[in-house]
Amino acid sequence: MKTLTCDDYDPNSLTVEVALQRIDRDLQPIVGEEQVAIRSALDRILAENILSPVNVPPHNKSAMDGYAVLGTDLPTEGKVQLAIVGTSWAGKPYTNPITTGQCARIFTGAVMPMGTDTVIMQEQVERQGEMITLSAGHRIGQHVCLTGEDLQTDQLVLITGKKLLPADIGLLASLGIAEVKVKRRLRVAFFSTGDELCSLGEVLQPGQIYDSNRYTLYALLNRLGVDMIDMGVVRDNPQAVETALLSAALISDAIVTSGGVSVGDADYVTETLRRLGEINFWKIAMKPGKPLTFGKIKAASFFGLPGNPVSAMVTFYQFVQPALQRMMGQNKSTPLQIKVPCVSPLKKRPGRIEFQRGILEPDEQGCLVVRSTGKQGSALLNSMSQANCFIILPIDCGEVTVGTEVIVEPFASLI
Ligand code: AMP
Ligand code: MG
After folding, report:
1. N or C: which end of the chain has fewer CB within 10 A?
2. Amino acid 299: pLDDT
């Protein structure tokens, strides 16, 4: 394979969009489901459509503390007196019908007694003993939640492929659903490659650095809710890389590695993959993160991230995360991108899309603006730690001057 090192337009590079399409085309959702209690379903991927088995609310109910009346008794002018004939409590309905000239004391959440359709707030009546007086100005049907107003029986509530969030768990409970079918967890094996890497707990030797990528990857994968298989550090030796890749392929649905995918003499991952499996692509017109290997070893999908810590994170967010989500059976979602003025000048040459690190914050007027975290080297993990968004500068964009609008992708929308 021909390799190029130039920084600008490279005819052999793929755009991010094309790379994403190819990954998407080559991946399938995993097969396998399990039934779990809804408390265990948080962040899992729903494997069935949920239809509401009931109307929500199941009856007409009051939205206020007050008096349930007949809309036909409301005065259009002057005043009207009504007799209080009973009380409807939340959970303890009043079961007799209410007829004209009558009303019932009612509390929030209580069933509307038969015949009534309107609630008058308690602050808006004058009460004398068991009588109330109300004035004009009320609307028929006010302060009542109607049967099925939130959800109707058989209405589609949650669709298969949805990642279940706290509101979904509550929603399921509100429907009386105690268990749901979810996708089985994806199994992801990961390791770092590099002779210079030292694991935590070991003494740093001259020329060594701590292996940070494996810890970043652990955190990123953990957030995604996959089953993780940490395979440690694999040395830059073709036999070690081959053994690690083959054993990872036996126990996982996907393998994520960092390092060893550039064109250095000790970069064995791509070469080994070419022998053992397939490689789909390898250079992307993006910065940071230009080298990325996507392939297959046996039945496992393979993602080889660059070793530089920022490049590894950017490529994870842009490619691996959506790919794993697709394998997990999650429906596609586009991360939130917004346009805001940039208050820092940004260096950029046309030719590659750049994911610079930014801090999105309100200015003095409360309008959102973004500023750069400063130096953008792909080894500067601190820039990722300070940032709360990517500033995405399209391929053709050159330098950015202060005040120019740029696209930002808040990290919060990625995780
Ligand atoms: P590579 O992609 O293997 O050529 O590595 C590119 C750069 O990233 C080198 O400076 C490596 O030392 C560094 N690097 C590679 N792997 C890691 C890692 N796991 N943690 C921190 N830095 C790494
Ligand atoms: Mg290396």
Report:
1. N
2. 94
Residue limits of CATH 2.40.340.10 in the chain? 338-413
- Which letter, b or e, does each residue of 240-257 get, where b requires 16 or more Cβ atoms within 10 Å of its Cβ? ebbebbeebbeebbbbbb
Q: What's residue 262's pLDDT?
A: 75
Binding site membership of 381 for ligand 1 (Cβ less than 6 Å) = no
- The predicted pLDDT at position 281 comes to 63
* Any ligand 1 atom below 6 A from CB of 192: yes
Q: What is the pLDDT of residue 2?
A: 37
Any ligand 1 atom below 6 A from CB of 304: no
With a 6 Å cutoff on the Cβ, whether 259 touches ligand 1 is yes
CA dihedral of residues 170, 174, 180, 183 (deg, nearest 10): -40
Beta bridge partners of 356: 391
Q: Which pLDDT does position 12 carry in this prediction?
A: 80
All CATH 2.170.190.11 domain ranges in the chain, comma separated: 61-145
Domain with residues 61-145, CATH architecture: Beta Complex (2.170)
- In this structure, the dihedral spanned by the alpha carbons of residues 369, 374, 376 and 381, taken in order and rounded to 10 degrees, is -100
307 CA distance to ligand 1 middle (Å): 4
Q: Which residue ranges does the chain devote to CATH 3.90.105.10?
A: 34-56+149-183
> pLDDT below 50 — which residues of the chain?
1-7
Task: Name the token pair of 199.
Answer: 């694991």
What pLDDT, on a 0 to 100 scale, did the predictor assign at position 8? 58
Q: At what angle do helices 238-251 and 269-276 cross, to 10 degrees?
A: 60
Expressed in angstroms and rounded, the spacing between residue 260 Cα and the centre of ligand 2 is 4
Domain 16-32+185-327 part of CATH 2.30.30.30: no
Which class is domain 338-413?
A: mainly beta
Instruction: State if residue 211 touches ligand 1 by the CB under 6 angstroms criterion.
Output: yes
User: Which residue is closest in CA terms to ligand 1's atom 14?
Assistant: 307
Question: In CATH, which superfamily holds the domain spanning 34-56+149-183?
Answer: Molybdopterin biosynthesis moea protein, domain 2 (3.90.105.10)
How close is the Cα of 248 to the center of ligand 1, in Å? 20
Q: What is the pLDDT of residue 5?
A: 40
How far is ligand 2, taken at its centre, from the CA of residue 313, in Å? 16
For residue 16, the number of C-alpha atoms closer than 13 Å in the C-beta half-sphere is 22
Atom of ligand 1 nearest to the CA of 260: 3
pTM as predicted? 0.89
